[in-house]
Design goal:
Blueprint: E1 2-6, E2 12-17, E3 23-25, H1 31-47, H2 60-69, H3 76-94, H4 104-116, H5 121-140, H6 167-176, H7 181-190, H8 194-199, E4 205-206, E5 211-214, E6 217-221, E7 225-229, E8 237-240, H9 243-252, H10 273-287, H11 297-308, H12 313-320, H13 325-331, H14 337-362, E9 381-382, E10 385-386, H15 395-403
Helix pairs in contact: 2-3, 2-5, 3-5, 4-5, 6-7, 6-10, 7-11, 12-13
Length: 404
């Protein structure tokens, strides 16, 4: 229901009821303006783009917890990162701002300010993603007509160059790691994430088939709490074991009960990343001249060694647990430089072959020394009369030539 009423003071009061039966009204000096506003609102209601003005006055800070609670597909570590971005970057700037007051220009200025402060490109993008997620929920809830955080200019990622160890360096690192020797070899040759390694139990190793089953992960949240769950891609996978690693595991790991952790801490608990680094990993990295090396870089090393050994992209994808082969190619494109060299070599071969065919086509053969001279051509005669021209003589023309 919608109507326009003229008030005693001469102004016009259009009013309408929304889908919940709540009445809304405004005042205009001219009836044409009142009618235009009422038509716009009616069209928005009918097309499903109607926005409740009062709901649009909700602040970003009030809607943020609702948005975060709705991200039920997030892993615990991802949820903790989103919560940290909210607390550190989004809420200090937008927490008390009404949704309707957030403009595209203000969002762009905020992102530029974060970049000017020296925040990494990836962190700026995460901040934009969190704010855009909250405003996107506002659009779906019909609190906003459009998302003002979309379409903003973002800084480049500035991804730093990955470090890959050679097989010799990996062996040296394992030898220097002391109690972490086998863990280093599993990380460096199987490409497991630390959360997957820490969750492995003895029963996950099948030495007869030379496989390790990755079906659990344990992550440290907020620096203290351990959370058990599925691997990063929510799927289990079977990872191949090199023969030499089967022998190592047979001597050190599978001799214990099946349900025990394969790589526990000295106290028998879950091996935490930071504890392992302070106990033996960082010292081992320094001993081989690779200070600052992280356990996750051994995952990159595993990809590098597998590709260098001739493994195809699909096999590497399955080993690492990536969602797709395209993701593996994008992430490790720098490891396929040899393929580019092979392309260049094939192009060289193709060009050389094509030039050879052209040369054969254009080459004129000359008689070799000692070969007999070709017979001298004689002018053909037709019935004793020299043939003239290039066409054969007709009988009439032959008689005329003979008469001459």
């Amino acid at each position: 229901m919608a109507s326009i009423a003229r008030r005693p003071d001469g102004t016009y009061r259009p009013r309408y009821r929304d889908e919940h039966g709540k009445e809304h009204a405004r005042h205009f000096k001219r009836k044409v303006d009142a009618q235009r506003w009422l038509d716009e609102v009616t069209a928005a209601v009918q097309t499903g783009t109607y926005v409740d003005p009062k709901r649009a006055r909700t602040t970003v800070g009030e809607l943020a917890p609702v948005w975060l609670a709705g991200k039920i597909n997030l892993k615990p570590t991802s949820r903790a990162r989103y919560a940290d971005v909210l607390k550190t970057h989004v809420l200090p700037r937008w927490g008390n701002v009404a949704l309707i007051r957030v403009t595209h220009g203000d969002v762009q200025a905020w992102l530029s300010e974060l970049s000017d402060r020296g925040l990494a490109g990836a962190s700026v993008r995460k901040a934009q993603g969190v704010l855009s997620g909250i405003l996107g929920l506002a659009v779906r809830d019909r609190r906003l007509a459009v998302n003002p955080a979309l379409g903003v200019a973002l800084p480049p990622m500035q991804e730093k160059r990955r470090r890959y160890l050679t097989a010799e360096q990996l062996e040296a690192l394992a030898d220097a790691a002391g109690p972490g020797r086998v863990a280093v070899l599993v990380l460096g040759y199987c490409g497991l994430r630390w959360s997957e390694l820490a969750a492995l139990r003895v029963r996950h190793f099948d030495l007869l088939r030379r496989r390790v089953l990755v079906e659990e992960a344990v992550t440290e949240v907020d620096g203290s709490r351990l959370v058990w769950g599925t691997p990063k891609t929510h799927g289990r996978r079977s990872v191949p074991l090199p023969r030499f690693l089967v022998d190592e595991l047979a001597r050190t790991v599978v001799t214990r009960p099946a349900d025990e952790l394969a790589f526990p801490s000295p106290q028998g608990a879950v091996l935490r990343n930071r504890n392992a680094r302070s106990a033996w990993f960082d010292a081992a990295a320094q001993a081989i001249g690779e200070s600052g090396l992280t356990p996750h870089e051994l995952r990159h090393t595993a990809a590098s060694l597998a590709i260098k050994a001739g493994a195809n992209v699909k096999a590497v994808q399955r080993m690492l647990g990536h969602a797709s082969a395209a993701m593996t190619l994008d992430r490790y494109a720098d490891l396929f430089d040899d393929d580019l060299d092979d392309v260049a070599d094939r192009l060289d071969t193709l060009r050389a072959a094509s030039r050879g065919r052209v040369a054969d086509f254009l080459r004129t053969e000359t008689p070799s020394e000692g070969s007999p001279e070709p017979p001298t051509e004689v002018n053909p005669q037709v019935r004793g009369v020299e043939t003239r021209g290039i066409e054969p003589l007709t009988p009439a023309l032959q008689r005329r030539c003979s008469a001459n």
